[in-house]
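User: ok so my PI wants both of these folded by tonight, can you help

Assistant: No problem, let's get them done. Here's the first:
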Amino acid sequence: MLIFRFFILSLLAFALTKESVKAGIIKAGEGQLITSIRAAIEAAQPYDTVEVSPGVYRQGNILIDKPLTLNGIGYPVLDGEKQHEPVSIRSPYVTVKGFSIHASGHSSMVDIAGIKIYNTHHVSIIDNILEDNFFGIYAQEVKNGYIANNRITAYGKAEQLIGNGIHGWKSDSLIIENNTVTGHRDGVYLEFVTHTEVHHNLSEKNLRYGLHFMFSHDNGYRKNTFSNNGAGVAVMYTKRVVMQNNIFTENGGDAAYGLLLKEITDSRISHNTFSYNTTAILMEGSSRVHIERNAFEANGWALKIQASCSENTITLNNFIQNTFDVATNGSLVLNNFDTNYWDKYEGYDLNKDKTGDIPYRPVSLYSMIVEKYPMAMILFRSFMVSLLDRSERFLPSLTPENLKDNTPVMKAFAL
């Protein structure tokens, strides 16, 4: 296999100044001279490796239309000059590794990305730095894609003026792992994406969602951190989702939540941590979701479960130091709360079986009032509110009678 080694003649190659560092005279293969990355790709044979030395390369769009590895040495810069899509991939069996990709073009009509993969399979995007691009990495109709160890940063000021960090559309069998995404519209966005694993990623300080997916079935999301995003994480119109060991934290604001579940069915949410969110989980129109062994700590509302939800199971979770544990907008109870730890539980355990002898009703009268009249929060921690809640607890009249945990545990679980 030929290995193309790029030798930049300019002494300024490592300085990365504003002046363009030309590709220079580059040796390739058997002594031929190549003067650009695009020319080197054209000269390469399928499955060759093209190695690019340090420098700043302003060469418009670099199209990879054959199987090969494009390997950056010392993070050479591919500068889109706010006009171009720096890297476009239209071939299977391509790897792009070790580049710093800056300043793609922006467009309201075309989804331009720092790296965009078009209608292909077996493509790997590894260990790159993407900064100030419209979209970061965009996978369009891709199968068996691998997106790992990339650092993706944008400086978006408004949602309509910036794209997503990692964007998948109509793709299958992607692995998205160990990436950091900051400052985009959504950190990770998936639509019509199936059989995909998203794990060990950090998505923080994005304008809208840390993670957003729709119509994306049979996917797993594990050991990710979604922190301080505009509206948290939204998952919609999807079946068979597994979300485990993730952290949802510091997603605050009037319309923010750690996790929105909208029209989600036959899914499992387990071993996650929800902390310091306005609402930890908001559920709308979701059924047969198993919420188990999660920690809900120091949220405004731990769980808002709308009357449109049914056949959901909430069990073996810890609810600690939340302003409100559970809120709902209806009196009909079609979901099961069983064997959770509630730090507000004031019951007793006379038979010492570690389970409370009386049920716990997690919906307070005050939470229902605040749900309808948000300004009522001004009375929080007042004597009147305490009196209302205690009266309602002993003689329930307005809160849902059947929304209760019949077997609350006395000690928090070790999750």
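One down. Here's the second:
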Amino acid sequence: MATIILLNKPFRVLSQFTDARGRSTLADHLRDPGFYPAGRLDYDSEGLLLLCDDGSLQARISSPKYGCWKSYLVQVEGKPDDCALEVLRSGVVLKDGRCLPARARRVDEPRLWERRPAVEPRAASVSTWLEIAIREGRNRQVRRMCAAIGFPVLRLVRTAVGDWTLGALQPGESRRESVHLPSKKARRSGSGKIRG
């Protein structure tokens, strides 16, 4: 049995506990020694960040070899058409290679908390909301994927990691869940499913 903390990481907070440059960090929102982020969420991205007190669970969530899906609500500049979304679904090519196929679709503007500072619309620009899910964890991957198809990201909110979802958590809020880990034998064979 392990414990996981689900945090709604606010905008412009680092996914670490210290920063030599004095920027806001997880320490401004959590006081839980022994918990470490399972993966990262960019400084300028918001939403679900998982923290674990078990190294093997942390690895299963964050390592690309386990293929844990991560879902995002993404506000992009412009109006991506079906052809642009199909590029994401088939695996967009970035400088560091082709991405695995993503799930991507247009969605209605979601009901989210107000971001501070707010997204500043560019002059005469139109924006579109997308739901994108990936199972890799490259640096700034979703932002780079959207830029590669010609639609820069204005706002990015992670809503789910595997079976864990943001739910009603507001920025800076967190909740704990117990996690049943697979047996060591199942973990060695790669067949053990993590159950929250």
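The mean pLDDT is 90. The two ends are 10 Å apart (CA to CA). Good luck tonight!
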